[in-house]
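FORM 12-B: Structure-to-Sequence Request
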């Protein structure tokens, strides 16, 4: 049977895409950077410009839904917390509002993903690595447009994230899959902890979400579509 198609905006190396693929979707990615490790068909270009073209041409109707992970650095907890207090980092673009406007215009069910922080999204769903037995905590928030999914119960964490905090080293069952130094995870540790094997580029791994998250979301989406008769290949 053919798979329903999903459009993956700001697709990076495909952490989200792989989860949707495992759930049963055919995935097309869009990213402005060259991402040779992306495991599915990918258009290189501005994600929002590409989405606008698809809407204007009517080609957006080839898709059953859209996932978007706009750049998160500007409003994530690390930027607005530690980095801001220390005067670290620079300016970052915030595309969440523009992304939502276009997704609403597309008229398809969608998901917008962002980390904890001050991103202006509806936190309809929050997922954590411990919910899936992973080696990262990596909380991520998801806004749903045009459909809903039930929030699963949050599972208590088994300990701390391994690494240095304010000059003190802590051990724990989770690795820090972001940045470098300070006891952060190695590339093989990040790959194992998140279930991502097709890229060994640190920058791609630190920006990725575990495929288990979107596999769960994708299965919820397909189940909701089957009930309503709205999802077709």
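FORM 12-B RESPONSE
SEQUENCE OUT:
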């Amino acid at each position: 049977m053919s798979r329903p198609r999903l459009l993956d905006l700001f697709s990076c190396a495909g952490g989200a895409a792989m989860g949707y693929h495992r759930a049963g979707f055919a995935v097309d990615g869009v990213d402005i950077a060259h991402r040779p490790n992306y495991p599915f068909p990918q258009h290189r270009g501005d994600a929002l410009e590409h989405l606008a073209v698809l809407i204007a041409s009517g080609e957006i109707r080839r898709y059953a839904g859209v996932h978007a992970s706009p750049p998160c650095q500007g409003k994530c907890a690390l930027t607005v917390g530690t980095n801001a207090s220390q005067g670290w980092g620079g300016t970052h673009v915030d595309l969440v509002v523009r992304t939502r406007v276009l997704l609403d215009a597309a008229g398809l069910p969608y998901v917008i993903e962002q980390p904890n922080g001050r991103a202006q999204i509806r936190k309809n769903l929050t997922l954590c690595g411990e919910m899936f037995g992973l080696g990262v905590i990596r909380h991520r928030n998801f806004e749903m447009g045009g459909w809903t999914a039930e929030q699963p119960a949050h599972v208590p964490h088994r300990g701390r994230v391994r690494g240095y905090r304010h000059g003190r080293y802590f051990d724990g069952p989770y690795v820090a899959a972001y940045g470098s130094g300070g006891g952060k995870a190695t590339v093989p540790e990040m790959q194992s902890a998140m279930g991502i094997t097709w890229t060994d580029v640190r920058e791609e791994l630190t920006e990725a979400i575990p495929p288990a998250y979107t596999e769960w979301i994708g299965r919820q989406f397909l189940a909701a579509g089957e009930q309503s008769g709205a999802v077709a290949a």
